[in-house]
Each structure stands twice: as C-alpha cells, then as structure tokens.
Amino acid sequence: MRYLMKVTTAVMIFLLPISTGNVQASVADSTIPALVSIESDKTSLAPGEKITFSVGIEDESDLDYVYLKVNPIHRSILGTSVQLKFDAATEKYVGSYTVPTSAFNEQWYVSFVGARDVHGNYMHLEDGGIVINNWESPITFKIFDGNDTVGPTFEQKGSLTLNVTGPFDFTKNLVIYDDVDTDVEKSVKVTHNIPEKTVGTFTVNYEAKDFTGNLSTFSQDVTIKDIESPKLYNVQNRTIFAGDAFYALEGIQATDNFEGDVSNAVKYIGYVDTSKAGDYSITYRVSDKAGNTINQTAKITVVAKESVTITGTEDEFLLLNSTFDPLAGVKVMDSSNQDVTANLSVESSVETDVAGRYSVIYTFDQGGYEPLTVYRQITVAPYNSPRIEGLQDLYLFEGEALTMPTNIKAYNVMGLQIDGVQMKTDRPVKDAGDYAVTYSVKDHYGYSYEETKKLTVLAKEASFSDVPVSHRYFKEIQFMKEMGIINGYPDKTFNPTASISRQHVASLIYRSGVALKPIREKIAFVDVPESHPYYTEIMALYQAGIIDGVNGMFNPKNSLTRAQLAKILVNAYKLELQPLNLMTFTDTDNHWAKDYINILSSNGITTGAQGRFNPNEQVSRMHYATFMYRIVQ
C-alpha cells in the first residue's frame, strides 16, 4: 500500500524593508512547500527509453531543490533519484529518467517527492513510509521489452482462515501481480470442494493468466471455522419507575450466523433494585458452540414515582332518590401541584333509588406516579331524625347551677356527631323539687329531635350529723343517701373516715341497681349464713363473679384496700378503658391492680392525690361514697 506525507519544518527569520522610517520588521516564513500536481509523459516504455516527469509546487519563497524517486513496485531496492529543474514555460519542475538497457519487464512507480525552499521549509512525500500525512503516488509505469515469458506471481501473506458462513474472500491473504499486466488480478480463477456450512481445512486452487497468455497456478490450505460472534438485539439503556416490574431478559434476543436463534443461551450479570432510585447496569453475554462470545451492557435508570393526593372523597349520606355524581368535587393533584384528575378512574355501585350502603372506588394508576386507591362509602336512606344519646334524669342540690352534662351527644342519620344540642327547663330552677328538662337538636337537613327528662333539685340539708353541708364530700354522700343507696347508722351518723367493710361494699353495689348476672352456683360461707343481714347482697355479687371468699369464709367485716375496690368496681359495672382520658399515677406502675386503677382513672371515677393513688390504703366510707356517686351519675 502506498501512502504517506512526511513534512519537516524549519523557521527562518529575515528582514524586509517596510515604510516605517528607519524601523525594519522581522517576518518569519514557516510555510511548507505544497505539491500541486505530478505527471508523466508515458505509462509504458522499453529498456533504454526515457520517461519525463513534471511536478507543480507552490511556495512563498524560492525553492532550493526539487527531486523525486522511482522504484519497482514489487521489489525492495533503494530506487533512483531524479533531479527536477524549474521550467519557466510551464512553471513546473521537470526531470527525466532513462531506463537502463539491462532492465527487465517490471512495474515501477514514483515513490517519493521532496522539495526545500530557501528558508529551510522541507516537503517530504513518501508513498509507503511512516504515516504522518496520507499520500498515495498517482504515477505508475511499466517497463516492457515486448517479449513477455513470465507468468503472474502469487505472493502469500500468512495463512488464511475464513468464516464458515462467509463471505469467502479466497485471495484475502494473497498479492497477485504480473511484471507487465497491471490487470492480472482480474484473471484469477479459484476452485475448491468446500461443502456448504462445513468447518475444517481444505485445499483451494488458483490460476492466473496475463494478457500475453502466461499461466501461473497456486494452491494453499484454507481453514474454515466459525469465527463470528453471535449478535444481541434490544440491549439498550432504559428508564423505569420505582416499583415497576423489571425483567432483565424481557425482549432480549440473540442470533448466531451458524447456529441460528441462541436467545435461550443469553445470560446476564447485574441487579436492579426497583424499590430504590438510581443507576444500575446489566451486562448481557452469549456464546456460540465455537466459543465466540459477545458482551453488551445496558444502563437501567430507576426514577422515583411522583406521589398524588385525591381530595373530595369523604363518605357521604344521600337521601333516597337524590342525585349523585361520583366525580363531583373530586380532584387529583401531584406533588408539583399539577391537576391530573383526567387520569382518575372511578368504579361506583351507587343506586340512589335503593336504600343501602354503597362503595365508590377511585383508582389512579398512571405511569410515573405512585398508584393510589381511595375507598368511599355512600349511604342512601330515607330520612330519619337525629338522635341524642346520654340523656338521663338529673339531680342537683339547691344553689347548684344547671349545666349541660358532658356525656350528652347528638348524631345525625348517618351516625355523624353534630353540635347544637339545646337544654330548656319548664320553669326557672330555684327551690327543691322536680322539674322537666327538654333537650333538642336540629341537623343541617332541617330535621329536629327533642326529648324530656326529669330534674330533681335536692334540698341542701344534712342527713348525717357528722357530714354537714360544709363537708368536702357532702354532695356525694347526701346524693347517695337521697338515692337510697346508703343509710348511715341509727344514731344519724355516717362515720365518713371509717374504713368500709366488705359486707357494706357488697350491699351498696347491690342497691345501686347494677345488673348482676349469675355465672356460678351459690356457695355456703361459714361466716355468712342465710340469716346474715347482707346474705342476699353478698351472694348476688359472688354468683356474678365479682367477689370471692377465702377458705370457705367471706370475712364480711374486713376492710378493703383501694386496689381491691378498683377491681370490684370495674368488674361490677363493666367499665372499660378510655385511653384519651387516662391519667396515670406514680405509685401503680408495677402494682397487680394497675389495669383496674387505670380504668377507674380514665372514666373519671378517681383522681388520686398529688399524682398518687395509694393502692394499699384502706378505703374510707366517704371515698367509697364518692366512687359510687361518680359511677351512678
């Protein structure tokens, strides 16, 4: 192959007179001479004949010399230099080469052109030298004495291995030339007996004939094997959203030139965590049976999905035969505050002409967003008036203000709590006696409800000599007396600070009217015969599973601790924990009755003292009366 341009540059500084007074400017000529054209007057000549070359060169300065070299194409010799002189008529550099009379038939070419200007800038163009700038000589000529007896030459450049599926270029490793016939390659004929798609080593035969009829033959062993790697398809960078499914081999195909479809042989290395945004790489690999392998890598980018919010899907109550549009007032907004409601799908079973509860399902499942499903309940019903819960007869002492009980709540037909409960008495509350209290409420549909309860104003008079009106627990003790739950002693005393006995606890609970359902048979306590004044009360609480005895005895006159009483009250009145109202105590964390004490506290039955409950202290009669008052109220 003939190509090269090698250039050497020298920089010379010379002075040119410039019209600036006595100042002279230094100008550097660094321009390399440039080859413009090269021609020859012949393409074929006999030994002893002359060939003339004409070379056009441009340069900013005069040239010192110009020359070229001629060489045989297929022989490595130093070649012959030809000096070129400037021809004023053609303005080109001209020189001749005379072929020696001893020359033999052969193809030659101009292998080199060189020039240097007066400032040392050097042009060096060499066909087949070190590549600095590509140049391929356009000048070839042949020396022919008219008598050609030498056939074409086959020059082998290494061994030849071809792919089993082709293409079969059997001359790929051969240089075929003739000393005078420049088109001899066109005459080459190749013969072989290689079966189709068969690997192995086979002999291939060649023959070539020049234009004078000289014939040459050549043979070589050619190896046929599968040297082509399979091809992978659809391996490409992809972007998916977090949470989406990713199957590494989905859509990946592979084919082999010899084996056909090898998609099942594709393997991959890498991992994509679809739950975590980031860049991941998957490398696919497939090999054929000959060991030819291809690897391709794809980048998989996982991006986080954008979240959305669905509003306007609150549960709703509809009157029978009203209208309902499941999309009315419903909006879907993404985290960029863009309205994407158009992509919301709705599944509704609502029939407004049939009473019942229906569901509406809103589903947003759009590429690039976190999927979201919202359920909505629609109640269709004929109208029912609102209701008020927690109403009961009230008791006040003279001088106490009448206020709305905190446990009274109103609900509409949907069961949703509503405000606006009003309370009105039949006359101003002043003296002791009975009054009527009417409670009323109106919902947003304009429907109302009212109910009347009795208010009893008790005279503020002490029934017990040791519990005057000024006593801290007068109200609680006197109320229990008015309700007939406690009676005190025959001497008109209550003895408020004394410890309350087990028999009196049983009696007071029984008198409060609490439902006591038997869950076990009676038992005969040695110390509670049927003649005992509190036999009925004690046995009722025992059968209800609220109190027990020990070793066949009830110990009716024994006192109770505050912790023991907590358990009895919780079980008797079936109290439950109210977590939102719970107030804990510092001395009950590890106590066996902690859960019972917490239930009393959360129901407002005990408040303790200075953050303590004192669970192991005995219960006084006044404190027990207070507990009972708060329960029955």
From TrEMBL:
InterPro entries: Cell_Envelope_Struct_Comp (IPR051465), Cry22Aa_Ig-like (IPR032179), Ig-like_fold (IPR013783), SLH_dom (IPR001119). Residues 1-25 form the signal peptide. Keywords: Signal. PROSITE patterns: SLH. It holds the Pfam family SLH. Residues 460-520, 521-583, 584-633 form the SLH domain. This is Uncharacterized protein DUF5011.
